[in-house]
Every structure is written in structure tokens, then in C-alpha cells.
Amino acid sequence: MARENQKTIYAIVAVALFAALVFVGSVIQVPVPAAFGMTRIHLGNIFCLLSGFMLGPVSGGLAAGIGSGLYDIIIYGDMLSAPFTLVFKGLLAGVCGLIAYAGHNRGENHKLNIVAGICGSVTYMILYLGKSFAEGLLLGSEMGTVLTALATKALTSGINAVIAVVVSVPLYTVLRLALKKSGLLEKLG
């Protein structure tokens, strides 16, 4: 029983740690003006994918969603978009973790991890761009303005996705090896 409790504590701490990493990664950004509002290139998605790789689909999704949602609330004071961000970023990491841990894999297949990172990123992009499109139309913007804003957001989201996959996959490989050698990997789940 004590061993189960200890494993639960490690899992909670891991989710909190990765949520904090996602939050801090989201702070490191380059703002990009769009036709309505702003978009940005940031490092948060690296840590969202890393959460999925390290913690699996459920815990990784929680960490990514919580860290990103808190970022929206604390940095932007945006209570309206925070629930969407929580779900969208949670799904980014969740899809990544689901694919990386598919079958008998435990995030150890490098090629599958690349596919997992791409699929998680594409999932997020579809959700984010779909929300942006609907939001633009609901706000009464002209279709041309909405599509122009969407093009800018698609470009920055694509850049974020490429950076996230290119950095998170090798970073995960290095972290996994270090955690395995230290004995911490097994304690994470």
C-alpha cells in the first residue's frame, strides 16, 4: 500500500512539474501581429509534447492542459479562452502520448515518437485554427479578414509545431535515458 501511495505522489509531482515547464515555455515567445488579435511563436508546445512522451496520454495531457490554461489565466487574464486552451493543449499531449505508447511501446520507438509529435501538433492546429475561424465569424469580421488572420495563425502554428517536434523528440530521448539511469523513470509510471 505504501508503495502505491509513493507511486501516486511521484505521478502528481511529475504532472505538476511538467505543467510548470509548459507554463514557463509558453512565456518564452515572439509575438506576431495578426489581422485581429495577436499570435505568437513560443516554446510551450515543446513541453506539451514532452509531457505526452514522458507521462503518457492521460498524465501528459493533464500537465500540458493545466500549464497552458494557467498561462492564459495568469499572463493574459483570459478566463474565456483558458478552458479551450486546457482542452486543446491537453489533446496535443494526449494524442502524442497515445501514439508514443501504442501497442507494446513505452515511448521507446524513435520513429513512432516523431509520428506522435506530428499527430499531436496537427491535432492542436486543427482545433486552434477551427476555434479562431469560428471566433472571427462570431465577432462579425468579414470572411477575407478572418481568412487573412487564419493564414497568419496557421503559419505561426506550423512554425511552433515544427520547432516542437524537432526539439522535443531528441530532448525526450536524452531525458528518458538520464531518468532511466537514475531510476526515476520507473517511478514516473
Residue share in β-strands: 5-15%
Radius of gyration: 17 Å
Number of domains: 1
Task: Compute the number of helices.
Answer: 6
- The span between the termini is 16 Å
Largest sheet: 2 strands, antiparallel
Order of helices and strands: HEEHHHHH
Low-confidence stretches: none
Examine the secondary-structure arrangement and name the CATH architecture.
Orthogonal Bundle
CATH class: Mainly Alpha
Strand order of the largest sheet: 1-2
The dominant shape is elongated
As a percent range, the share of helical residues equals: over 70%
Summing up helix and strand content along with how strands pair, one would put the structural category as: mainly alpha
**Number of strand elements:** 2
Keywords: Membrane, Transmembrane, Transmembrane helix
Transmembrane segments: 12-34, 46-71, 83-102, 114-134, 154-179
GO cellular component, one term: membrane
Protein name: ECF transporter S component
What does this structure look like?
By secondary structure, this protein is mainly alpha-helical. 80% of the residues lie in helices and 5% in strands. The protein has six helices and two strands; from the N terminus they run H-E-E-H-H-H-H-H. It has helices at residues 2-27, 44-76, 82-100, 110-138, 143-182, 184-188, and strands at 29-33, 38-42. Strands 1-2 form a two-stranded antiparallel sheet. Strand 1 and strand 2 form a beta hairpin. Helix 3 packs antiparallel against helix 4. One of its GO terms (cellular component) is membrane. The chain crosses the membrane at residues 12-34, 46-71, 83-102, 114-134, 154-179. This is ECF transporter S component. Pfam families: ECF-ribofla_trS (PF07155).
